[in-house]
Amino acid sequence: MRAAVHRRRGGDALNFSIGSWFKSRALDTSKIPFVKPEHLQHTQNFFDKHGGKTIILARFVPIVRTLAPFVAALGSMPRRVFLGYNVSGAFLWIGSLVAAGYLFGNIPWISKNLTAVVMAIVVLSILPAVAGWLKARAAT
Q1: Which H/E stretch holds residue 30?
Q2: Where do the domains of the chain lie?
Q3: Residue pLDDT tens, the chain, 140 long
Q4: Would you say 83 and 20 are in contact if contact means Cβ atoms under 8 Å apart?
Q5: Measured between alpha carbons, how far is 113 from 106 in angstroms, rounded to an integer?
Q6: HEC secondary structure over 74-140
Q7: What is the pTM of this model?
C-alpha cells in the first residue's frame, strides 16, 4: 500500500497561487469590476522592472510581506522566478535575524527594552513605504 504524498506549500507560495488563480479569473471574465486590464498591465510593468528586489525586500516589511506574492502573480512573475527570489529573501531574513540576535542579544539595555526595540524596528521598516506613498500622493 502506497502512502499518500502531500505537497506542502508555504504561505508565500500559496498566496502566489491564489494571485495566479485570481488573475486568470479577472482576465477571463469581467465579473470583477475593480480590476481593470490597465491596472494589471501597470502591475506587470512594475514587476518586470522591480520584481526581484520587491520579493526579497518584502520579507523585511511587515504588511508588504503578505501582499507581495499575490501581487507578483498578478504582475505575471513566473513561478520559478518568484520561488528563487522568495527563497533568497528567506535566507537573508533568517540570516539577518540570527546575526542581530548574536550581536545584540546579550546587551543588557536591549534585553530590558526588547518591546521598544522591536517596535522601533517595525516603525523603521514601514517608513520607506510611507515615504513612497507620500511622494506618490504629492506627485498627483
Answers
A1: none
A2: 11-104, 106-140
A3: 444 444 555 788 899 999 888 887 766 656 666 667 777 788 888 888 888 898 998 888 777 888 899 989 988 899 999 999 999 999 999 999 899 889 988 899 988 998 998 899 888 888 887 888 898 888 87
A4: no
A5: 12
A6: HCCCCHHHHHHHHHHHHHHHHHHHHHHHHHHCCCHHHHHCHHHHHHHHHHHHHHHHHHHHHHHHHHC
A7: 0.70
